[in-house]
Specification:
The chain is of the alpha+beta class and about 350 residues long. Helices cover about 40% and strands about 15% of the residues.
Amino acid sequence: MWNSLAVQWQKDGGGRNAARMAGPGDGTRMRTCERMARMRKEDLADADCGIAQSLGVVGDWQSLLIVREAAAGVSRFDALAHELGFSRRALTERLGRLVDDGVLERVPYSTHPPRFDYRLTRRGEGLVPVLVALQEWGTRYVMGDGAVSGAVGDAEARRVHALVGTRVPDVTLTAHDGTAVGLVDPDRWTVLFLFPGAYAPGTDGYPTGWSDIPGTRGCTLECVTYAGRTAALADAGARVLGVSTQRPDQLAAFAAHAELPYALASDQDGLAASALRLPVFRAAGTDRLKRTTLLIAPDGTVRRVQAPVTDPAGSVDDMLDAVRAEAGRAETGQPARG
């Protein structure tokens, strides 16, 4: 009974709408639920279990959603309150706990009055793979039927298309040549195409049954087609950046094999996937990006989204047309599409 009450209390925004549960004697129950929701790691009996101890820090859904937003670059109190819809009291309490537990740090951006950004610490960044895993699990088992699929579903497509008009967070990845590369180029448009994986022949790459997973075929074709359109895209004012969760050395081997004239970058730590809440799937023990393409303006705003991508080669020409259209609008001062 107490567990169900605690769950309902959390759904009600940490007591924000608790009046809906009110009744004779419910005051004691609500206080009990609040104590349960505030359970700390020192209260957990299993002191040697990493899962139990982790739940003592981020065991409630509100704390995890705060971490999700912080990973996406939402760092200020009012912005967090707007995105999450929490009461200011609940948000203040949870931010304080996450700071105390070393998940977030407060970075001042104003002294009069004192104001702070809430940013992930290195310890907090360690939760990024957890966010990616929860994204994949929720899509596959809660919203789906449990089958592995590399194809973008309806809910995922809606989530990605909602990125249009938003700013891309400051995320830096490692390119196939070992250099650091950002998702945004302030001097050019960026065609950011995300793909499950492409491997050079003779390397330990594609897992068993890879081609049987819906949505995985066509990565090499997509990469090579972009290679053939790189010059045209450059003439239109755009660079090409391909991203997968492969290691940089695997991407380097494939880039050399395919003679790609553009950069491939590794999101093996899930930084881009968590920041943009990109569609992912898990195969052979590795989280993979589902095929999605974003057109990003020099100011970091997402202008176009391709998802799902059912024609890997044809989507490249569609994106070239989109770049020309958006760049033309920018040059003539016309409002951006969408």
